[in-house]
């Protein structure tokens, strides 16, 4: 099933890129929480929802763009957790730092995860104790390795005063952290797509959608928020 989910993420990425490259209008609007949503978010959401319903019709889907209420999902034991476009603010800025995130959750734990960076055409996936990176059509298995010294990653768009204070306590600065993008796959709006980040010890400021594809136990970073 992992291969099908990877292809689904790639299809969603194709839909996103049609907006990113100007083929289709961006149509930016604000959600109730004032966070932005674009035509690309909705297009990717539609691609993924249709694909997952066909692939696994009996497994419900929790997507950032259309989350069912708690009363509906509180008893879900297995479900898909999706962020169709993680990094909408980065997408709007057209800096390439956004991803498609898809994870299968079973009893509160991710058992399959996919993160796809459309601009770079890089796919990270993990399941059944193994993880892979696919780039330029070449797929290689990757391994977790400890970071020395520890790395802390924050988002370009979500760094608030509280996070900056915490960084100071760690002896880090936001400028220092941003330079790490040269070493780590640029993440979505909340940056994580340092997925295999595997080299990242802490990611500050994550949300449910952010960690969905990245925290599959096969190979993951430690998320702190």
Automatic annotation (TrEMBL):
Pfam annotation, one family: Inositol_P
Keywords: Cell inner membrane, Cell membrane, Hydrolase, Magnesium, Membrane, Metal-binding
Cofactor (UniProt): Mg(2+)
Keyword Magnesium annotated: yes
PROSITE patterns attached to this UniProt entry: IMP_1 (PS00629)
Gene3D superfamilies according to UniProt: Fructose-1,6-Bisphosphatase, subunit A, domain 1 (3.30.540.10)
Keyword Nucleotide-binding: no
GO MF: 3'(2'),5'-bisphosphate nucleotidase activity; magnesium ion binding
Documented EC number(s): 3.1.3.7
GO biological process: 3'-phosphoadenosine 5'-phosphosulfate metabolic process; sulfate assimilation
Residue numbers binding Mg(2+): 64, 83, 85-86
Catalytic activity from the UniProt record: adenosine 3',5'-bisphosphate + H2O = AMP + phosphate
Family, per entry: Belongs to the inositol monophosphatase superfamily. CysQ family.
Name this protein carries in UniProt: 3'(2'),5'-bisphosphate nucleotidase CysQ
Protein's organism: Escherichia coli
Lineage, broadest ranks: Bacteria, Pseudomonadati, Pseudomonadota, Gammaproteobacteria, Enterobacterales
